[in-house]
Amino acid sequence: MRRLLLPLAALPLIGATPKAGADIDVMVSNMRSGDGQVFACLAPAKDSFPDCKGTGGKDMKIPATEAGHFTFRNVVPGHYAIAIIHDENGNGKIDKALMIPKEGFGFSRDAPVRMGPPPFKAAAFDVGSEDVTQPIKMRYIL
């Protein structure tokens, strides 16, 4: 009987492809509306935080109606921070009034905001080989 079952035990391994890295599941709460889009930046260093304009950042654009949960896939182990903005009017940028954001924003680890975005180290978290979940609370000032 064992000889018959042994080949069946190997079936889950056939065709399995190893994962290149961990997934980061982002759970966004406190969205004001489903209008527009959400821009997300996964930054590996302070030079690419919060806007992914530096080296190595991964960015995503998600319809606001689907932004409650999204995933950065196959992220190599390291130290990362996430920044998101809710572009409610869909013009591709965060609108401001006297330097105060009129649209929503949020950061990993619920990093506190004072005069501008938080420093990278306040929002940073570690990613290893296991998947990670990052809850982010969207904030609106105006």
UniProtKB/TrEMBL annotation:
It holds the Pfam family DUF2141. Keywords: Signal. InterPro entries: DUF2141. Residues 1-22 form the signal peptide. This is DUF2141 domain-containing protein. It comes from Croceicoccus pelagius.
